[in-house]
Amino acid sequence: MPETMLSVSSKVLVELKGITKSFPIPKGALIACQDINLVIEKGRSVGLVGESGSGKSTVMRVLQLLLPATSGEVWMNGVNVSRLPQRRLKRYRRNVQFVAQDPFGSLFPHYTVGGNIAEPLRIHQTGTKSEQSARALELMASVGLSQDLYYKFPHELSGGQQQRVAIARALALSPELLVLDEAVSSLDVSIQAQILNLLQEMKARMGLTYAFISHNLAAVRLLCEDTVVMYLGRIVESAPSEVLFKQPIHPYTKSLIDAIPAFVGDKVKSLPTGSLTKVERPSPTHRPSGCAYHTRCPFATDVCKVEEPKWTEPLPGHRVACHHADRLK
Ligand SMILES: Nc1ncnc2c1ncn2[C@@H]1O[C@H](COP(=O)(O)OP(=O)(O)OP(=O)(O)O)[C@@H](O)[C@H]1O
């Protein structure tokens, strides 16, 4: 029975069971993520954090069935969707929608705003043409876009407006899960705040659940009920966000949280001081033995170099893989 991150209940929307994904490389295989067990409950958005290359996007691409897992299963609403033939995946694909980092790149440049938003309705043959247009207008209103923009083209919009169009399009088929991969990071800081506020407000209004990948931990804390921390392809800690940000246990999580700049007004008060800045990140092709974080961890002892840490659950729902969890909590 695999270890499962976060508590499992009847409200489970998506579950990843033991997902491993490796890519062939000239000298063997690169394991982008390994033995990922993750539960996303309805109405409990999950934030996936970790440095670049830790495997967050790979996990989410497997979740969306855009990449086949090397091993493991993806379940949604109690069905093992990784075993379904393509023709039976239509419902899953409708139900899990994606918002990318670069809104302009993700929109069709030769389609109007209305055309872009209505595109999924056309593909899934949902409603008549006029019903699709009416739905596009309704979605524009729900993401705060003025109806005057309906016939504009993406290049005529600001970055924030483009991202609102991308979000409206992702919502067209009323998905239950929205995967957001760095969905605000390419925008100006003030626009990021507006889009984050919109996402937060839509969550409450539409009962949406997000799987949110971000380097912006403050945004994860704001939007996500649960947070999962990845390091070199593995989950190292997961907990309700309120708990994780107040009482992180894994030294890696602590470093990530330390690295959030503190602001006073719009001025940075303190610069990152975490150990992450001091030691180079190992490559996933040369994964360190034992606890992979030991090469950078200020608390590492001999056992960390040779033995993989086991999962412990210091508090219900707060799980961590660290040999020294007891003394670090
Ligand atoms: N198609 C691929 N072929 C080979 N290696 C890949 C492929 N896709 C991802 N990788 C590798 O897998 C590892 C995990 O990548 P991934 O993009 O999932 O990380 P990430 O945490 O999402 O990073 P970022 O925050 O930069 O997006 C990286 O070492 C990456 O180079």
UniProtKB/TrEMBL annotation:
Give the record's keywords alphabetically: ATP-binding, Nucleotide-binding, Transport
Instruction: Give this protein's Gene Ontology molecular function annotations.
Output: ATP binding
Q: Which InterPro entries match?
A: AAA+_ATPase (IPR003593), ABC_transp_ATP-bind (IPR050319), ABC_transporter-like_ATP-bd (IPR003439), ABC_transporter-like_CS (IPR017871), Oligopep_ABC_C (IPR013563), P-loop_NTPase (IPR027417)
Pfam families, per the entry: ABC_tran, oligo_HPY
Taking every annotated instance into account, which residue ranges of this chain make up the domain ABC transporter?
Answer: 14-257
Task: Name the NCBIfam families for this protein.
Answer: oligo_HPY
Spell out the PANTHER family in the cross-references.
ABC TRANSPORTER, ATP-BINDING PROTEIN, TRANSPORT ATP-BINDING PROTEIN
Q: What is this protein called?
A: ABC transporter ATP-binding protein
